[in-house]
Amino acid sequence: MIEPHNQIIITQDFDTLRQNLQESIEKENLDIIETDELKIEHAKEIISKAYKATKTNHYIVVFANKFNIYAQNALLKILEEPPDNISIVLCAKNRSLFLPTILSRLPQKIFDQKIDKEDLEFERFDLERLYELVHNAKFLSKADAKALIKAMLHFAIKQNYALNERELDYFAHAIKLIDLNSNVANVLLTAGLILLTHKKRGK
Fold first, then answer.
1. The domain 7-110 is classified under which CATH number: 3.20.20.100, 3.40.50.2300, 3.40.50.720, 3.40.50.300?
2. pLDDT tens digits, one per residue of 105-131
3. pLDDT (tens digit, 9 = 90+) per residue, 12-53?
4. Phi first, then psi: what are they for 110, rounded to 5°?
5. C-alpha to C-alpha distance for 111 and 91, rounded to whole angstroms
6. CB of 1 within 8 A of CB of 138?
7. pLDDT attached to residue 49
8. Quick one: average pLDDT of 63-68?
9. Which of 50, 114, 160, 167 has a Cα at 20 to 30 A from 12?
């Protein structure tokens, strides 16, 4: 799940990001607004939704190819001082779509396309790639996270790494942890460090 605060997410893959958000956030806690251009009427809709009282974290996620200047200006105050438990997430394909005043108020994150176990080259897997994997873990579905764990184990076996009983048990347990809604980033971090330890040893 994404962190509960206002933010900008830059991505070329709206579909995958939307799917991951829908899988990780309860339906009643998520409002998605999709439009080619965010206009003043959309800004008013966002503000109206934001001021509905809620006791749990509620996300208003906007997907747009263009962001009208007037709409952005209308959102400035609520982006700077959001109501309690409300997070407004602006998703765009380019950072340049936003006014400097918006950019200065919101943290920005990049969501790359869905991590695919076939595209993750474990031959070149290192701490930097592990950090990237952990950083993007919040966007992964359970199925994708479990596929990554299985791919790590498959690579370790293929490389004849001498995994001990405790390490083998962890990979088996990791799948269950993901199903039980454990922190995916932590699960992947531990599995990745096991892999890197053996890779460094060469066995």
1. 3.40.50.300
2. 898 887 865 454 444 567 778 898 888
3. 889 989 988 998 898 999 999 999 999 999 999 999 999 986
4. -110, 125
5. 10
6. yes
7. 93
8. 96
9. 50
The whole-number pLDDT of residue 108 equals: 86
Q: State the amino acid at position 65 in one-letter form.
A: N
Residue 34's nearest CA partner among 62, 60, 13, 67 is 62
The domain locations on the chain are: 7-110, 122-201
Phi, psi angles (nearest 5°) of residue 111: -110, 110
- For the record, the structure tokens of 177 come out as 């942890």
- The structure tokens listed for 64 are 């747009």
Q: Please list, residue by residue across 152-161, b when 16 or more beta carbons sit within 10 angstroms of its beta carbon and e when fewer do.
A: bbebbeeeeb
Please classify residue 124 by burial: count the beta carbons closer than 10 Å to its beta carbon, then call 0-12 exposed, 13-18 middle and 19+ buried: exposed
Q: Nearest 5°: phi and psi at 188?
A: -70, -35
What is the C-alpha R_g of the chain?
Answer: 20
**What's the Cα-to-Cα distance from 135 to each of 32, 109, 169, 186, rounded to whole Å?**
23, 10, 25, 10
Whether the CB-CB separation of 185 and 137 falls below 8 Å is answered with yes
